[in-house]
Amino acid sequence: AQKITQTQPGMFVQEKEAVTLDCTYDTSDPSYGLFWYKQPSSGEMIFLIYQGSYDQQNATEGRYSLNFQKARKSANLVISASQLGDSAMYFCAMREIYNFNKFYFGSGTKLNVKP
Amino acid sequence: DVKVTQSSRYLVKRTGEKVFLECVQDMDHENMFWYRQDPGLGLRLIYFSYDVKMKEKGDIPEGYSVSREKKERFSLILESASTNQTSMYLCASSLSSGQHNEKLFFGSGTQLSVL
What we know:
The structure holds two protein chains of two kinds. By secondary structure, chain A is mostly beta strands. Chain A contains no helices and twelve strands. Chain A has strands at residues 4-5, 10-14, 19-21, 24-25, 32-39, 46-52, 60-61, 64-69, 74-79, 88-96, 103-105, 109-114. In chain A, the strands form three sheets. In chain A, strands 2, 5, 6, 10, 11 and 12 form a six-stranded mixed beta sheet that branches. The mean pLDDT of chain A is 93. By secondary structure, chain B is an all-beta fold. Helices cover 0% and strands 56% of the residues of chain B. Chain B is built from no helices and eleven strands. The interface between A and B is medium-sized, with 29 and 29 residues.
């Protein structure tokens, strides 16, 4: 079974609007971490936000927030007030406590921000 | 600023050639990783190293080997390149603190084409 599932291969959003990128995960570990990365056309993966499985509150970093629903095993990324520079690939990733050095990545979502 | 440097951004090789992809990090990280990125498949782990001269296979090690003679440098070797190894290769590093929120730092990637 897939550890990380991103069901939206591509998405469009109007500049200045909010957008949600979906991510669901599969784990039986009691403790894990969830990450979102951005990959612009330049190729480098840029860390955006982290959520720990025991964190009580949803993580936020500037315009990025993580809508963490543990019971549903979802960790959606919300980008508020989209900018043209947000156009990129976005990857969701998970790290489990029992396989600590391994990060599982989803297949990614290509976001296009329209002016 | 932290840095993971991959020696080449683009590389074109012929089938059967021995190919070396080099990665250097300046953050004194214990862990280093090689991923392969293909459209629709996300990132897949080829090998990782948790210390000098130590390595472990990832999900797709076949056709690849690695070398880590110094802490800061991790090399990926394609012993006899084949066309199905045409891909984007990403190097990453991380601390080994045992904390869940330790993230991966990535290089800019090497787009390898095998003709």
